[in-house]
Amino acid sequence: MREVLEVVSVSKSFVVPGAPAVQVLRDVSLTVGQGEFVGLVGPSGCGKSTLLNIMGLAERQDHGDVIIGGWSTKESSDRHLQQLRRAELGYVFQNFNLLSTLSVLENVMVPLVLNGARREEASRQAEELLTKLKLAHRLDAMPFSLSGGESQRVAIARAVVHRPKVVLADEPTGSLDSYSGEVVLDLLKEQVDFGIAVVMATHSETALARCSRVEHMKDGCLAGARGR
Amino acid sequence: MTLQGVEQRAVGWFMPGWLFYRFIVRRCARNPVRILLLLMAVAVATTLVSSVARVSFSSIQTFEDSLGYSPKEYPITISPVGGRIALSEIGRCFARLSSRFDIVAFRREFGEVEGASGRRGVRVTGVTGVGAGDWEGVGTDTINASRTLIAENGLTPGSSVTIRGDSFVLTKPVSELKTQDGIRSNSFMVALPDLGAGISDGVLDGILLRPRAVSENIGALRGAVQEWLGTCSVSSTPLRVDTAKSAVERGDRLLAAYRFNVLIMAAMTVLVCVLLVSQATQVSLRNLSRELAILRTLGVGRWACLWAIVKESFGVGLIGAVLGVSLGSPIILALTELFLSTAHDIYNIELGGAELSWSHVISVVLVMTAVVVTGAFCGALGALTVSPSIGTRTGGASVRPIPQRAALVLALCSLFVMAVVWMAVALKPTLFLSYLYIGACILVVGGVTPFIVTLTPRVARILPGGVSSWIGRGGIRVGARGYLLGAIGATLAIALICALSLMVGSFRETLEVWAKVRLRGDLFVSSALDGKENESRLSQDVVEAVRGISGVERVVPYYEARTTFRGSELVVGASDLLAQSERGIFIVRSGKVDGATLHDGVEVLLSEGGARKLSLRPADSILVEGRTLRIGAIIQEFGTELPLIQIDERLFRQLYPRHNPQSLTIDAKSGASVEAIRHSVEKIVGIGGIVRDNGELRALVLTLFDRTFQVTSSIRWIVFTLGVVGLLLATLQHLWERRRELKTLYLLGMTSWGMVLAFVYEGALVCVLPVGVGVLGGVMMGWGLTHYVNPLSFGWSLAFSFSLYPVFVSCLFVLAVACVVGIATALLLKKTVRGATFSDE
Predict the structure, then answer these.
(1) Which of A91, A111, B251, B757 has the maximal Cβ count within 10 Å?
(2) Mean of pLDDT values over A96-114
């Protein structure tokens, strides 16, 4: 199995003015292979979100390296990180984070357009994917008019439409009812079947049941993996 | 009713103070940009309104001062119309008048003064009678003088001044009201005992009356005096009995046109201020809607929600107004000074009352606070519709597109009203209808803007641009309603700026053409004094001597006298009409100039303002000094605000045999040295005349015009600033609302520059089309002001001329908004994008 994401001995601490530095991640190493569905679990404040931010190249680590598709990002420029985020990564948020001023179709088109696709081509591909996700009737709807389940399906479509190597999901079912949560997890699993690796932070046992591997975090360290 | 031993108080109309503090005041601290922009807008508007109020008050106060005496002390004046008062003719009335009044008499004479700039002719006003010696600084050996004269002659209080061989000590400067066109004479007000003695066989230029009984009704007294004069006077010159109050009002009317200009701007500024406060409140309400719903669930009443928002605005209004008056005081004073200096240039007067007073500050602060609270109340009305709910939907940007059909209906309705008013004013142009036309233009600008905003994203599709423009367009399409009031405010500001600049531009262009034609010639010689009858003018000897100078091709003398027609004062100007029409000196507005009839003195020319004021047309007759004259043509004339007729020199000399020329126009022969001629002329006229190059005069006319409109120009830029701040407020609030989306875009791989560009694109697009509407509306308003309001108000018709200035201002406007939005986005990106992204959920 080809490795698409490697976290090598990453440490991270935050300095709060007037208080001692807080070590959030301590020497964390993690490898994610192509088509792997990795669950990240742990108590609140253990460093899951920080690890996702660092894996998602939204934040820089103090020590260690994050390798995406064979590219070390340790010395990378902001521009290179941006290109990697744009092309190799997809993001799913608990609160969907759809762009409120763009329609459903346009939200899904954004990654394609940013990656240089022509507007017509991006629209065709986005429409195709949304149709598969049973959202063909909501193409022109605005995000505020969508239900939670619909919003998260659109968010997943936006995360995978440009075929990234890794999708990072933070509590993707956290704001959803059980049925919508199931639908969303099925969708993520489908992406895994297409060869996209998914790293998902969650507290949900149902969600963890879908993962091929679960990593436990505690006090900024990976406590160990449990394979499924 | 008690709950666990605590007495409950119902939350009705108002939110409890502690909740208000936590809910509203703390939020202000969390979103300082919104509050700062609001404060700025209120402060700018306050500064402008305060300036206008200050200018108005100081203008009125000044014209009281400019009379040279206290209108309260001497409330009734008697003045001759078109001549002087012969004491022999009015003397019989003095006995009757002196039983009820203290009488003071004026007489103006030619004098000379020696100062640092040499010897020059001046007009000396002598005063005698009861109480004349009490006047400030005026005694038997002391004088006061106009500020202009003091400045121009390098005099200082305490200087010794020689007038007609007598030496006087200068006490203090006084204001002086003149309406000359820059070739000014100056006046001295001096107590001359011998002048009083000379009255017995002389003439007077004015009489002031002070009632002995304080409680007299001035209006009734004025009527009585008019009646007595009718019975006891045999004056050959018509006498006008006036109250000092109406004299002040007449003087003040000279500046009323400018004040009106400024007042319209202030009114529009207040309107823009109300709009943007309302807009800011609406956006604020949307941000708070979820929390308000929760508060409603917890039992807070809907009116309590509304008042909480209005209370916040009251604070903002109060602080903004105080800031506007205190920080803006240098601007207020500078604008007032500018206005006053303009008045100084045009009317040769020093205006007073520029200083700020507490009563002024308090009134302006109260007015502006009321304006802000009104705007906030309108914007916060939406709080009444917030229903209690356990809101789970996350807050986001203002995703409320404008309903296009409703916007279209509004636009069509406003256009329909405009069309009806336009037809009405075209059929019967009256001042009321012309102002209604201006109102309709404002209505169209406000009514069409919403529809135009809905079109913006569609039109923008044809524009080039990448992802940034695409995202920017989405922002407008969806958030249009959030931008609406800001866009209307900006559109109104641009429309106003364009309208006034086009009107002023048209006026300037017309004046430039007029000056080129009317002030044709090489040299212009004017009398140093604008005296009457026996005062110094350019004698016939001077005219003949100038004609004899080598290199002079033609000398055209100009005469002037005053008379009355149908009870109105009329200026009678005279020159060789045939020669003047050959020189192409008249711009004919109506009728035609026939050289033959002009030469015969059969026809006269009437000024356009005079034709309107006296309701006369070509071929009508006018009676001047017992002669019936036929009006040959209506001409353009900016030289005087009074009705003016131009008659032939020969006829004038028959009617006014004692009048000498007031000025001369000299045409030099081709190739002759104008400078040499000028020196020769200066030697001939001496101190009794001023010699100027006609080119200088033409430039002076435009310089004076530009100075006059400096105030409006300054205020235009304040309105501009307010418009930009209004639109920025709307745009930046949208940006602030969507700051989380910046993170998402960042994660999706959009570059910082791309994000900045997206919001710049959005801000610029929100401006472009509405500002276009503003320009069109401004052109319509400018046309109305030029075509209807100006001629109906002032009697001058102007040629409407379009300039690129509005386009320049509009481009600058869009650029300013785009730049500030760009900088704000960049700053916000720096603050929000970096750092935790997932954990912020």
Answers:
(1) A111
(2) 84
| pLDDT, average across residues A71-92 | 85
Structure tokens at B568: 């109105």
- Which residue in B66, B74, B70 sits closest to B221, CA to CA? B74
Q: What's the confidence (pLDDT) of residue A180? A: 82
The C-alpha of A99 sits at a distance from chain B's nearest C-alpha, in angstroms, of 6
Clarify whether residues B87 and B67 are in a common domain: no
Of B665, B682, B701, the last residue of a domain is B701
Are B697 and B618 in a shared domain?
A: yes
Residue B708 in any domain: the answer is no
One domain for residues B558 and B652:
yes
Same domain, B226 and B334: no
Half-sphere exposure of B3 (CA within 13 A, CB side): 3
Is any Cβ of chain B less than 8 angstroms from the Cβ of A141?
Answer: no
**Same domain, yes or no, for B335 and B232?**
no
As to burial, measured by CB atoms within 10 angstroms (0-12 exposed, 13-18 middle, 19+ buried), residue A107 is: buried
For residue B746, pLDDT over 70 is answered with: yes
Give the residue numbers in B contacting A (CB under 8 Å), as ranges: 393-394, 396-397, 399, 467, 470-471, 474-475, 477-479, 738, 740-741, 743-751, 834-839, 841
CB contact at 8 A, B66 and B148: no
Q: Which one of A52, A89, A142 has the shortest CB-CB distance to B478?
A: A142
Decide if pLDDT at B64 tops 70: no
Torsion of the alpha carbons at B591, B596, B601 and B606, rounded to the nearest 10:
20
Give mean pLDDT, residues B8-23: 58
Contacts of A59 in chain B (CB under 8 A): 834-837
Which residue on chain B is closest to A61 by alpha carbon?
B835
Bridge partners of residue B645, in order along the sequence = B572, B606
Closest CA of chain B from A212, distance in Å: 23
ipTM over 0.95: no
For each of the domains in chain A, give its residue range(s) and CATH number, in order of start.
3-98+165-227 (3.40.50.300)
Confidence of residue B170 (pLDDT cuts 50, 70, 90): confident
Structural domain ending residue among the three candidates B372, B395, B418:
B395
Answer yes or no: is pLDDT of B206 > 50. yes
